[in-house]
Amino acid sequence: MSTTTLPTPSDLTITPRDRKFERGELDPRLWHGGSVEATAIYNALSTTFPVGEAYFVESVRAFREGTPPKLAQEIKGFTTQEAIHSREHAAFNRRAADSGYDLSKLEAQVEYRLSITKTKPPIVSLAATMALEHFTAILAHELLADPSHLAGADKDAADLWRWHACEEIEHKGVAYDTWLHATRNWPRTKRWKVKAKVMLYVTRNFVVDRTAGSLELMRQDGVSGLRAWSRLLWYLWVYPGMFRKIGVAWFKFFLPKFHPWNEDDRDLLRAYEASAAVRAAPAPVKKVRNAA
Q1: Are 26 and 157 in contact (CB under 8 A)?
Q2: From the UniProt record, which GO molecular function terms apply (predicted)?
Q3: Contacts of 244 (CB under 8 A, 6+ apart)
Q4: What b-and-e string marks burial along 176-206, b requiring 16 or more CB atoms within 10 Å of the CB?
Q5: What is the 8-class DSSP label of residue 279?
């Protein structure tokens, strides 16, 4: 596919929203509506972002030389957004640690997974980034599309996740477009085989590691064994069922002519911006009549 015919919207602008969220200890510790499993999966996801998003930035930047001007500008916006995400999730992870969670085991596993790809040619890291960015984009879409995923969560923590989801959707095509540019001279069959193999590998590791990380955090809250497994699997695969609900969008990655922007879901961004503006607006001042 030529980089001159990419389906990324021509009027798309990637806009870093430099927000800073709460820095104090998570209160309550089970910030997601008192749910052990909901708090655990979001905390487990957050542990991946500080080093993971830095890895994404490094992987994409390695191939920005010679990209078309529009893509070069989008890479700049992407790297800025990801750097801010790393900062805010590092702060969120410190809040979780201050609340008593030991995240070291989860963080070590993320470092281990990334260390494997870092020993391979840079195109492998770009392929992994391209696959993981699709994963984060479809998770972000589901998070914004279905309010049940953050129902009952602490307001500031929920705001962090919605903000992050918004920007993941906005820049969802950057790594993929960079991949198309970097592999523009590859035969289509080779490109498809590599991206399919990488996505299957990434998916296996993502599901296994996030499940294991969540179970570890649930254990730290006194829930383990069959009870922990049943609660976590119900939450992820039944209700609200985040992993089940992204299944179709995940499968589309393997179809011919796939591109992240085949689905233009910027309506979710507009809805987020409108709701964020409402939340940030000052409360109206009520007029008080003078007593006669």
Answers
A1: yes
A2: hydrolase activity
A3: 236, 237, 238
A4: bbbbbbbbeeeeeeebeebbeebbeebeeeb
A5: H
Report the 10 Å Cβ neighbour count for 263.
15
- CA-based torsion, 119, 46, 217, 130: positive or negative: negative
Letter string b/e over residues 99-120, b meaning 16 or more CB atoms within 10 A of that residue's CB: bebebeebbebbeebbeebeee
128 vs 139: CA distance, rounded Å: 17
Q: Which of 202, 216, 50 is nearest to 139 (CA)?
A: 202
Q: Copy the structure tokens of residue 163.
A: 């903000």
Question: Coil, strand or helix: which one is 32?
Answer: strand
Q: And the tokens for 228?
A: 């922990």
Residues 200, 253: contact at Cβ < 8 Å? no
Which amino acid is present at 182? A
Q: Which two tokens stand for residue 276?
A: 């964020």
Q: How far apart are CA 131 and CA 254, in angstroms?
A: 11
Full pLDDT tens readout for the chain, 292 residues:
444 456 899 899 999 999 999 988 888 999 999 999 999 999 999 999 999 999 999 999 999 999 999 999 999 999 999 999 999 999 999 999 999 999 999 999 999 999 998 889 999 999 999 999 999 999 999 999 999 999 999 999 999 999 999 999 999 999 999 999 999 999 999 999 999 999 999 999 999 999 999 999 999 999 999 999 999 999 999 999 999 999 999 999 999 899 999 999 999 999 999 987 656 545 444 444 443 3
DSSP category for residue 284: P
